[in-house]
Every structure is written in structure tokens, then in C-alpha cells.
UniProtKB/TrEMBL annotation:
Family: Belongs to the MGR1 family.
Membrane topology: Multi-pass membrane protein
Subcellular location: Mitochondrion inner membrane
Protein name: ZYBA0S14-02168g1_1
Highest taxon of source: Eukaryota
Keywords, sorted A to Z: Membrane, Mitochondrion, Mitochondrion inner membrane, Transmembrane, Transmembrane helix
Record organism: Zygosaccharomyces bailii (strain CLIB 213 / ATCC 58445 / CBS 680 / BCRC 21525 / NBRC 1098 / NCYC 1416 / NRRL Y-2227)
Predominant localisation class: mitochondrion
Disordered, as annotated region: 1-30
Keyword Ion transport assigned: no
Length: 399
């Protein structure tokens, strides 16, 4: 038996601050679910990096990064050009060539404006601190520092762009791209199932038949499926989803990326070697098999070769080829000496013994079979043996 106690009507409502804290906690949890998309050369963009399967977004950031890097390198060239000494004629300066028409060369620095002119004017008006700052910005050290910063920044940006370009063009298999594509497709199909089970709100959505224009019921499975598909397509067409992919998607770490890439290369090399072996086997089989015309050519060539050899043997002078008058029957493991060896003293006995060991030959040529027979006596023989033993013992006692 259970007792149900209704809630007290005077129970206080949740405070507004608590509700705001819950909302803030929920938003923070949602924000924590977003993971920065991986990349090789666009890491400096941080959370603005698009999904790995969004190639248009990746190429856009690569283009912007390349343009910024080229701009920094171009600034070095412009800055160096502004520091070059300009060659001018004296006649171009009226204050120097007022009473004569002589000509001569004069090297002057180009006029600078902007911050340097502002600092100069401020220094004439009595601004000592501003004059020091202007002197600092006009010093050669500041110029060298600016050149180094421009050079390092431009080189870094261009190298990172080259690295990302290599990933997009050279790699035929990108684990990050395949993972992002599979997660995007999985979210699309999960959204269809979710929207199908949620159903259709008849107050917000009205479905009409295309043939007669009548309003159809929203509880029909075909209608629910079509509406779920449209809602999933609208969700996938969202600009944020198209750029970043599913927001709760967590990409694989860089170490796993390298492991999958290495596994792909190993499998590719294995399949390539297997394909090469098959091609070589096919080529060998094609070379071994010959057509009937080739076989006839080989038969004709063999016949001609045999005829030439026969003619050469027939035309050889007598005595040029030694012919043995009798055939010698050699043992299986006997000692074979040179035919010109006639004297026994010229034979090295130790060498012959080491090469042709007669005891080893005897062991190899001899086949022995050994059988072990058990010594078991029959019952009648055993009884007779016992009687003989008793008789011997009685004779010993009598003695």
C-alpha cells in the first residue's frame, strides 16, 4: 500500500538566477561539444577551419592564407625599394642651382611621409618623447626588424598553404575526409529517422495531394517519411552544418590519422605487388605458349642444327676425337681417376681417402635390421626349471 502526497501549492518556484545558471551551463556544455576541425596547414585559423570533406571551404582558406603570405613578402620588396638612394640632377634643385646652369649628380634619400613626418613635426613643436619614438621608428634596427617579421610571416603562411595543398592534391586517401563524410551521412539518416518518429504537426504543416489538391492526413507513413526527408535535407543545407559538419563530431587525433594513412599505404603496396606478380605470371605464360607457326619454325631450326652437327662429325679428320674402345663399368661409389693417370705413386692417398671414405660407403651400402625377441618361457618349461632348481638345492644340502 502506498500513500500519495500532492505537492504543496505554497512551494516556492525556482529562482530566476537558478534558471539562468542552468541555461548558462547548458550553453557551455553545448559549446564544449564543438571540436576544432583538423588540418595540416590551416591550424592558425583555429575554430574557423571547415570540415575535412568541405573541399571548397578548405581551398578558400588556402587561397586567403596564400594571398596574405604573398602580401607580406611583397611588403619586403616595397620596403627595400623605399630605402634605396635616388640619383638626381643638381639642376632639379633651384636652391642649389640658382645662379648657374651647371649639371651634376646628387644622391638623396627618398622623402618619407606618414609616421616619420608626424614625429618630425611633433619634435619641432617640443615633443621630446614623441621625437624619441620617431627616432626609434626611423632607425635601421626597426627597418631590419620589420623585414625579418615580414619574411618569417610570409614564409610561414606560404609553407603552411603548400602543406595543405599537398594534402588536398597528392593524397588519394584522406582519413579525416572519409571520417567527416561518413559522419555527415550518418547524421543525415539519423535525422530522417528522428523526424519520422517525431511526426508532423498538423498546425504547422499541411500536405496536399498533387492530383486533386485535397489536404491529406499527416499520420500516413508516406507523408511522415516525405516530411522527415525534407526536414533532414533542410538541416543538412544549413550554412553552419555545410561548413563545419555535425557540430558534436569529434575528429580523430593526429596519431590515429597517421596510423590509418600508414595502413592504407601498406595495403596499397601489398595489392600493387600482388598485381605485379599476376602480370608477370601472365607474361611468362604468354611467352611459354607459342603459336603453331612458331612451333613449326622451332622444329625446322632443330632439324637444320642436327644436320649441321652431323656434317661436322662426318667431316672430322681421323684421330681428332678420342674414342674409347671399351666401356668400363664403374661402381656406384667407386674411385674414378683420370684416364691419363698410369702410375700409382702419383696418387695422393690421403686426399683420395678423405674424398672416398670406404667405411662410410660400406655404412651407406649396408642395410641392417635388428629385432629384439623377448625371453618368455612356456608353462611346462617353467615347471621343469623349478624341478631342476629344487634338485640342485637338495644335492647341495646332502653334500
Amino acid at each position: 500500500m502506498a500513500l500519495y502526497t500532492p505537492p504543496d501549492k505554497s512551494s516556492p518556484q525556482p529562482r530566476r538566477s537558478e534558471m539562468e545558471e542552468d541555461k548558462d551551463g547548458g550553453t557551455q556544455d553545448d559549446f564544449k561539444k564543438f571540436y576544432v576541425r583538423p588540418s595540416l596547414g590551416l591550424r592558425m585559423w583555429g575554430p574557423l577551419v571547415p570540415a575535412s570533406d568541405n573541399r571548397m571551404g578548405l581551398w578558400t582558406l588556402v587561397g586567403i592564407q596564400t594571398a596574405v603570405g604573398a602580401f607580406f613578402l611583397h611588403r619586403i620588396r616595397v620596403f627595400r625599394a623605399s630605402l634605396k638612394v635616388v640619383k638626381k640632377d643638381i639642376s632639379d634643385f633651384p636652391s642649389l642651382n640658382r645662379f648657374s646652369t651647371t649639371h651634376g649628380d646628387m644622391f638623396v634619400n627618398p622623402a618619407r611621409g606618414g609616421a616619420s613626418s608626424f614625429f618630425k613635426s611633433s619634435s619641432t613643436n617640443g615633443g621630446i618623447g614623441i621625437a624619441r619614438i620617431g627616432k626609434l621608428f626611423n632607425s635601421p634596427r626597426w627597418s631590419t626588424f620589420k623585414n625579418v617579421v615580414y619574411l618569417l610571416t610570409g614564409t610561414l603562411l606560404l609553407s603552411q598553404s603548400l602543406l595543405e595543398t599537398s594534402r588536398l592534391t597528392v593524397l588519394k586517401y584522406d582519413p579525416w575526409s572519409e571520417e567527416a563524410r561518413s559522419v555527415r551521412d550518418k547524421k543525415f539518416y539519423n535525422d530522417i529517422i528522428q523526424f519520422y518518429h517525431e511526426g508532423v504537426d498538423p498546425t504547422k504543416v499541411k500536405v496536399k495531394d498533387a492530383t486533386n489538391g485535397k489536404v491529406m492526413s499527416t499520420n500516413i507513413p508516406e507523408v511522415k517519411q516525405s516530411v522527415a526527408l525534407v526536414r533532414a535535407q533542410a538541416e543538412a543545407a544549413n550554412s553552419v552544418i555545410k561548413w563545419f559538419g555535425p557540430l558534436e563530431y569529434k575528429p580523430m587525433p593526429f596519431t590515429e590519422y597517421l596510423d590509418r594513412l600508414q595502413y592504407h599505404f601498406d595495403i596499397y603496396d601489398f595489392l600493387q605487388s600482388k598485381r605485379t606478380l599476376k602480370e608477370n605470371a601472365a607474361q611468362l605464360s604468354s611467352q611459354i605458349t607459342h603459336s603453331p607457326s612458331e612451333l613449326e619454325e622451332y622444329v625446322r631450326y632443330n632439324q637444320e642444327t642436327r644436320q649441321r652437327v652431323k656434317d661436322l662429325v662426318d667431316n672430322v679428320p681421323s684421330g681428332s676425337i678420342p674414342v674409347s674402345p671399351q666401356t668400363r663399368d664403374l661402381p656406384l661409389r667407386g674411385v674414378v681417376l683420370d684416364a691419363d693417370q698410369q702410375d700409382a705413386d702419383n696418387i695422393d692417398l690421403e686426399e683420395m681417402w678423405s674424398l672416398y671414405d670406404p667405411w662410410m660407403n660400406l655404412a651407406l651400402d649396408t642395410s641392417l635390421s635388428i629385432k629384439f625377441l623377448p625371453t618368455v618361457m612356456a608353462p611346462e618349461n617353467l615347471a621343469q626349471a623349478n624341478q631342476n632348481e629344487k634338485k640342485d638345492e637338495s644335492e647341495r644340502e646332502a653334500e
